[in-house]
Amino acid sequence: MRALIFGANGFVGGHLARELVSHGYVAYGTDRQDSARYAEYAGYQSGDITDQADVLSICQKFQPDVIVNLAAVASVGASWYSPQLTMELNVCGALNVFEAAKSLEFQPKVLVVGSSEEYSPSDAPLCEADPIDATNPYGISKMAQERFAEAYASHYGLKIYCTRSFNHAGPGQSPDFVIAGWCKRVAEIDASGMSGTLSVGNLEVARDFTDVRDVVRAYRLLLESNYCNEIFNIGSGIARSLCDVLDTIRGFSSQPIEVKVDSKLLRPSDNPVICCDAAKARKRLVWEPEIPFERTLRDTYDSFRTGL
Fold first, then answer.
1. Cross-strand bridge partners of residue 165
2. Global pTM?
3. Helix/strand/coil (H/E/C) assignment for every residue in 238-266
């Protein structure tokens, strides 16, 4: 099976490439950089997912059996700073992938990644049947991507697999994301041998975190199933307080760390609790998160600590 990953050089792209190659796939990648970041790719071509001609050319070159679209503005915070870019990458980029897929002689399966941010706020675990009503540009873009996926599946017969993925973390993640950012800063303080200060946003929220290595396994299992043109939640089913997460990460350092709330890190709107009901994935894909959360945090911390 030939798999083509858009957003190949990103955090999830590298883990997905390893997952696919370890299960017999040949992985090809494309991203905006001139060269591949990960050794798993058998072929790579730079390209811009917002350029329809680029996307078509890359798909024609690699003739994939499977396309995974990971190219996106991937965080709520970044989407508030660049709502227009968010729509261009997350929606127009997906449309370019769908257009290319339907034009190939042998139409590939396509996986697009949605988000828990699509859902209406709820204190209860969220399942696929719950109402969606995003309140930020990122979530809105993922809702639009999903509707276009439905339209292309219905009108052109494309086999499109859709997830609503909850927060994931792990080694290799950008420090722009909360867990990786905290791990990086705490590792820096520990390496300095002195006390330090950690700036944070809203710690009064709870989020569902899954190790990225478990997430990409779910993506592979979904692609290998016949459950196209459906929605699958991917998450752990446990909402963890960010305050508790931070306490665990701080515990990795032998140095005193002062925590300060930075108003610049507070979002215009923030759902108090986001928790996944992944019963559908557990039943149909026979998938369960296997990596303990403590290991996720420790592996992420160690990835920064060893580099200092």
1. 115, 234
2. 0.96
3. CEEEHHHHHHHHHCCCCCCEEEEECHHHC
